[in-house]
Design brief:
The protein is mainly beta and 243 residues long. It has a domain at 46-214: Jelly Rolls. It contains 2 helices and 15 strands.
Length: 243
């Protein structure tokens, strides 16, 4: 068992490298990726929601455990030193500590929206078929339209942070209709801050890549039977979370 998040990150990275893990075109996630609890990330069964849980986590107001089922309309809250890795439908998420995430569905989509009222979440979304409708993430200052994308989001009182890890997002300020941007990336190419206050048309600003890793994206994509579109783990310096 590991004592802190640094040990956990190092163990995940060590497991990848010693297993000879490689992502090449057409490959599948067959090489075991072991996390801090010693579990192999693989596609969860339909009657499973949670891959790992640590600390105090509430789902729909009740203390969660590894057997808790998360529905497309659940509200999830994490306390200090807590986190949750979970799946709903074709999407998977890592919810960091001190976060609140409200899921919502409509008639045309299993998981139509995520409202991150506070905190941080890393998410990967499966592609929707025609007629299923799109997805969106709402934060304190922004609305992010997404489709078949990996996205890391933070929601703070005075700003939000969005990294389109790969795929396309449509980022819009909740306050200013003139602050909008469509972002298409292959590998964390255009992170953004979305500010609460500022000049009209200028509330979206460039930001650094921070606080999430490619290893985490690999892990949660594996939970829904996919792999991220990276060419190879060892062909670049993998982004690291900031602490």
């Amino acid at each position: 068992m590991f004592n802190n998040s640094f040990d956990r990150r190092q163990f995940i990275r060590y497991s990848l490298l010693t297993a000879g893990y490689s992502l090449t075109a057409g490959s599948s996630l067959l090489v075991p990726l072991v996390n801090a609890l010693g579990k192999v990330p693989k596609k969860l069964d339909e009657d499973e929601s949670i891959f790992t849980l640590s600390g105090r986590v509430k789902v729909d107001g009740k203390r969660a455990n590894n057997s808790t089922i998360i529905s497309p309309n659940s509200t999830i809250e994490t306390e200090s030193n807590s986190n949750l890795i979970f799946v709903v439908g074709k999407d998977a998420h890592i919810l960091r500590e001190n976060s609140k995430l409200v899921l919502s569905e409509n008639a045309s989509s299993l998981e139509a929206g995520l409202q991150l009222t506070k905190g941080k979440v890393l998410s990967v979304f499966g592609k929707r078929r025609q007629g299923e409708g799109g997805m969106k993430i709402s934060t304190t200052t922004a609305t992010i339209g997404i489709r078949g994308t990996g996205v890391y989001s933070e929601s703070h009182d005075d700003h939000s942070y969005v990294c389109t890890c790969y795929g396309t997002t449509a980022i819009a300020s909740n306050k200013d209709v003139n602050s909008q941007e469509v972002v298409t990336t292959q590998h964390h190419d255009a992170p953004r801050y979305i500010l609460k206050d500022g000049k009209n048309g200028k509330l979206i600003e460039p930001a650094p890549m921070k606080n999430h890793t490619d290893e985490e994206l690999m892990l949660i994509e594996a939970l829904v039977g996919r792999e991220p579109p990276f060419s190879s783990l060892i062909q670049y310096n993998s982004p690291r979370r900031g602490y």
